Amino acid sequence: MKNKEILLRNNVDVDSALEIWGNDIDAYNESLKDYYNSLESKLTMLTNYKNNYDYQNYAILAHSLKSESKYFGFMNEANVFLEHELKGKENDSNFIMNNFGVLERTVKKILEILNEYFQEGSSKKTILAVDDSNIVLNFIENSLKNDFNILKATNGNDALTYISSNDIYAILLDLNMPNSNGFEVLSYLKDHNLISLIPVIIITGDDNKDTIDKAFSYPILDVLNKPFTIDNLNRVLQAVANFYENKN
Known about the structure:
By secondary structure, the chain is α/β, with parallel strands linked by helices. Helix content is 62%, strand content 11%. It contains eleven helices and five strands.
């Protein structure tokens, strides 16, 4: 499997987890990647539930995180989620408000561990796909996963987290999304002098001329109109390859 030592040194009970998966390493890794890609959006949802005092849904999502974490051997982290699940069921506002930082740091710790795990020893370049449609994200992942590592984000906030913590080869970016849209991501890239370093391809179902013109006011590489095909993806990825060749 990938570098198991990365998980072991972070107290992940890999061997017990693999028993759950029938020692099917490929199944473990594939599902672990889905778990990894879901963590940022789940943390955002938990934050919203906390801020809106919606402790019923807070408890349900904390329960989901607890169960999923156990499947992959993150037992210590699962105990943190369990505590928040129980306190959510009790509507214990004081505990949740005072200890949410612990839960947040726990999620971030898992993300750091898995980011190192999936990047270790990989020669594949990483593409960040950002869209609020899981159908679009899954289409991109299934089309490109043989040649690239695919990070999936359903909103701009999650995209910015990935950008700040990964070596991104290219970004496929939707414009209309909740919790920070594509234009906010473009502004971030521009403000941090990244937009000339990371090629951005806009993916959009909006054919409004003003929207497209606004997108091209940034130095983006291209626009893909939905629905796009595998051939369309390959075309823009060739443009990405040309982008890096011209830089050299």
